[in-house]
Write a structure and sequence with these properties.
This is MAP3K TRAFs-binding domain-containing protein. The structure is a single chain. The chain is 63% helix and 6% strand. By secondary structure, the protein is of the alpha/beta class. Among the domains are: 10-163, Rossmann fold (3-Layer(aba) Sandwich), CATH 3.40.50; 172-235, no CATH class; 391-458. Strand 6 (105-110), helix 4 (117-120) and strand 7 (125-127) form a beta-alpha-beta unit. The longest helix has 25 residues, at 173-197.
């Protein structure tokens, strides 16, 4: 016992309270969780059974102000942290405990939950939570799942104490030297990246080999390795460039190549190189291991769209319809996961209209409004996402809004085709024009499309 009036040890529970949205993938977990019932029916009785005095911040009579929170996190014999939903306070308090104590911090999460990237690498005890309201039977199931492992996990060392030799006293000088070397490399690399981002794609492309040569020996630093990958992707203009992306990824350190962002880009490159089935397999494995995101669902939708086009081009109508429906399903999931991500929703309108089923026109209009709002929001926030401008251009054709398309064409001519990077979107834009019912609007959009082709050098 570290502090207190009783010989009985106490455990401080770090968790949300009240009802909270889970952000769980539909069908994989409850939409929301009542964390008060989770505490009452599962965690409180479990800790009592294990011989602890259970304490939870919101159970106290007064507000747990910050100095009291620090005291609890330091003096508690055990801290349990529930990471089932993304919560800033919970993540912060976990970090404090990891910093001030070497052991006695156990991470918990519902079996369907997905943690944020850094924390996902830490060992976490999983428990069943099929519904958001915890009754007596579910509480018992949760206690049974956690009871055998908590004692074992208590001895797990904090990652801070594990990685910083000598912490919290005098940290070994070798740690500081390594950090200084990395900072020097990162500072130079980021300066070069800022310079390159200011260049048009055509000029930036010519610098890629030089930058890769300059920093090739430092790709073991994850920030530099992924920064180089982003640079290469930002300069893609041909299939040969996508092969460069794939080759770069396949030559990375195997552990770095397993990172979700890298695997997403590998799947994208495979799809662009006419290997959609391989890309789909990569993405499905990534979703199974790390959970669904709007980006991953959007990439899956794109790969099925490629299969759809190939099937229709080959006269395999039934197969094409099948792949179109799969493409729509994944784009819809992506849109539902994040309405601010314009990528999944931007692909739906054309697919709905091509399918032309009951309610599809209404669905197309909704998807276009979501896409337009997401693009406008991204531009207003000064986004560096390279596809936001061509996506907005595509929206103008899909609505269809000839005035908007002509205004955007003026911006393309003013800012340059490199800034807009619309070449890869021309095929989708071309597919939209025949679906425009108004003859005058269709004619105006066709003229804009012709001009865009000239600007793209086609």
């Amino acid at each position: 016992m570290n502090a207190g009036n009783s010989a009985q040890p106490f455990c401080f529970m770090v968790m949300p309270f009240g009802r909270k949205q889970t952000q769980a993938e539909p069908g994989k977990g409850p939409e929301e969780v009542d964390f008060n019932s989770l505490w009452d029916k599962a965690f409180f009785p479990l800790l009592a059974e294990l011989g602890y005095r259970p304490i939870r911040a919101d159970q106290e009579t007064g507000a747990l102000i910050i100095n009291q929170m620090f005291q609890r996190l330091y003096f508690s014999d055990l801290v349990l942290v529930d990471l089932s939903v993304p919560n800033g306070n919970v993540y912060y308090e976990m970090g404090v405990r990891h910093s001030v104590k070497e052991k006695e911090c156990v991470l918990l999460a519902a079996d369907w939950s997905r943690q944020l990237f850094d924390v996902a690498q830490m060992r976490t005890l999983r428990y069943p939570l099929p519904r958001g309201d915890v009754d007596d039977a579910m509480g018992q199931a949760i206690r049974d799942a956690l009871r055998p492992s908590i004692a074992k996990m208590r001895a797990t060392r904090s990652p801070v104490h594990e990685l910083l030799q000598g912490y919290p006293g005098k940290v070994h000088e070798s740690c500081a030297t390594g950090v200084r070397d990395q900072i020097d490399a990162l500072e130079a690399f980021q300066a070069d990246m800022r310079m390159l981002r200011s260049l048009p794609v055509s000029l930036r492309r010519g610098k890629v080999a030089e930058i890769r040569e300059k920093y090739g020996s430092q790709v073991g630093i994850p920030t530099i390795a992924t920064g180089l990958l982003r640079l290469i992707i930002s300069c893609v203009q041909t299939d040969g460039h996508w092969q460069e992306v794939l080759t770069y990824i396949d030559e990375l350190d195997p552990e770095l190549a397993k990172e979700p962002f890298v695997r997403e880009q590998r799947a994208l490159a495979l799809g662009k190189l006419n290997q959609p089935m391989e890309a789909i397999a990569e993405l499905k494995q990534l979703v199974a291991n790390d959970g669904a995101t709007s980006e991953r669902e959007g990439l899956l939708g794109g790969r099925y769209k490629e299969l759809m086009r190939a099937a229709f081009d080959a006269g395999k109508t039934t197969e094409g319809i099948h792949f179109r429906n799969l493409s729509i399903q994944h784009y819809e999931r992506g849109m539902q996961l994040d309405l601010n991500d314009f990528f999944p929703s931007s692909n739906l309108a054309r697919l709905y209209r091509a399918r032309n089923g009951k309610g599809d026109e209404s669905r197309a209009e909704t998807a276009l409004h979501v896409t337009s709002a997401a693009c406008q929001r991204a531009l207003s926030r000064g986004t560096e996402k390279q596809w936001v401008r061509p996506t907005l251009l595509g929206v103008a054709f899909d609505i269809p809004d000839a005035d908007m398309a002509e205004e955007l064409l003026e911006l393309v001519e003013t800012e340059g085709a490199d800034t807009w990077q619309f070449t890869s979107s021309l095929q989708s834009i071309t597919e939209s024009v025949p679906h425009v019912k108004d003859d005058a609007v269709r004619a105006r959009l066709a003229l804009v499309l012709d001009r865009l082709r000239v600007l793209a050098g086609q």
